[in-house]
Amino acid sequence: MININEFNKQDWGDSPSAVLRNLNNISLNEATLYEYAVAIAQSQYRDRETHQSMQVLSDIKFALDVTAIVAITDSQGIISYANDKFCQISKYSRSEIIGKDHNIVNSGYHPQSFFSEMWSTIQAGNVWKGEIKNKAKDGNYYWVDTTIVPLSDETGRIIQYLAIRLDITERKQIEEALQRSQQELQEKTQHLERVISELQKAQSQLIQTEKMSSLGQLVAGIAHEINNPINFIYGNLVYVAQYTQEILFLLQLYHQYYPMPMPEIQQAIDGTELGFIKEDLPKVLKSMRLGSERIRRIVLSLRNFSRLDEAEIKSVNIHEGIDCTLLILQNRLKIKRSNSEIAIVKEYGDLPLVECYAGQLNQVFMNIISNAIDELETAHKNSKVLNPKIWIRTKISGKNRITIAIADNGLGMTEDIRQKIFDPFFTTKPVGVGTGLGLSISYQIVVDKHRGQFSCISTPNAGAEFLIEIPIHPTEK
Ligand SMILES: Nc1ncnc2c1ncn2[C@@H]1O[C@H](COP(=O)(O)OP(=O)(O)O)[C@@H](O)[C@H]1O
Ligand SMILES: [Mg+2]
């Protein structure tokens, strides 16, 4: 007798004849027949269940294949299955893919560490999820949202990896485009910020230049108004001196021929100290002449300095411009609260007339020389410089160029400061003293207006030298 239980254990996959052969060996009674019927019913039921499960599985596979890129690799990562979608997106035929690993679609975009992390996750039996950029056979890139599931046998050993991927190329492209436009926007914003700050600088320079120009107009106006009256005084002083001489001579004659004047006249002579007046009057007149001569020179210098009438480019004598500037700054050369004076050493070369905006160039000389005076004043007060000096040298420095060098023996500046002195608003002077605009405006005048060069050579404790190089005729090479 075969125990039905044992029989049940047999492989139901045996052929029907084998089953029949087995049946022949069985002595059938009712009970065993019943048991056997039950067993057949159970087996049919199980068959149906298996069939149904297979059906479900195949439906799931169909659904997966339509929506996802599916691949199965062995434990070493060698591809053993790739669905149609895999072939479509990667542009490889199935035979080109099977037997290879996923390096075949590696785009080189991700670092090695990205894949090492992926491998250690799945080798530990965990599901890995991530976004991967791959490269198709035709060189095009595509992005896949990837899930890798490790599949293990009943002992728990991983035998396969199932990779399910969704094509997210479009989303990634949109993301990348968004990122690019964000970056562009950022760059544009930065550019705009730079433009705004440059505009602000330009505006402040304009305001300063405008101030200088209105100051120039004021100076020129005053100079013009003073010019006439001082000319009356200066011109008439000659006659006053002459008339005085004549009157004094007459007085002397009177005194000689009328030594005994009337008592009233004698009284007046005694009261006016005539002797002293006769002696002092010529001296008074001389000092009046010197004073008015000086006023005339200053007025001329002011006019020359502001050169309002010469807003256009003109041929001028550069040395005259420098001398006028020095005359205007004359009072600053005497160091306050000290007996010392800043010495000016002029080493003028033989310069031709130079075509330039004379008023503006004088402004440059003024800015540089007043900086040198500022520097020497502080250095002298701190007993760092005992013999303050400013050198002004000029020379022809090329076929069509002249150089003006203005140097001082002050304390100079560090390289760090030297790099910034032409920046608008850069100043090392106390608030209210420096505006930080002198050199930046000078730079604009020399470099932009005159197509020249403007530089500074300086080392700490060794003074500073400013070099202006401009063309003699700006239109020539
Ligand atoms: N002859 C010089 N010696 C040393 N430093 C100087 C000299 N000339 C200019 N500088 C430096 O350059 C800076 C900028 O000068 P400037 O543009 O004229 O502005 P400000 O005179 O208002 O400070 C000064 O603050 C100073 O630090
Ligand atoms: Mg200055």
Describe the structure.
- The chain is of the alpha+beta class and 477 residues long.
- The chain has four domains: 4-63, no CATH class; 68-167, PAS domain (Beta-Lactamase); 184-306; 312-477, Heat Shock Protein 90 (2-Layer Sandwich), CATH 3.30.565.
- The chain is 55% helix and 17% strand.
- The strands form three sheets. A five-stranded antiparallel beta sheet has the order 2-1-5-4-3, with helices on both faces. The chain has a five-stranded mixed beta sheet with strand order 7-9-10-12-11, with helices on one face. Strands 6-8 form a two-stranded antiparallel ribbon.
- It starts with a helix and ends in a 6-residue tail after the last strand.
- Residues 367, 371-372, 375, 408, 410, 412-413, 417, 421, 426-429, 434-440, 464 line the site of adenosine-5'-diphosphate (ADP).
Lay out the secondary structure.
Elements (H helix, E strand, L loop, with lengths): L3 H6 L6 H9 L5 H38 L1 E6 L4 E4 L1 H7 L3 H4 L14 H12 L4 E8 L5 E12 L5 E10 L1 H89 L5 H9 L2 H33 L7 E3 L1 H11 L1 H4 L9 E5 L6 E3 L1 H24 L7 E10 L2 E8 L6 H4 L19 H12 L3 E6 L5 E8 L6
Helix pairs in contact: 7-9, 9-10, 10-12, 12-14
Bound molecules: adenosine-5'-diphosphate and magnesium ion (MG).
The site of magnesium ion has 4 residues, from helix 12.
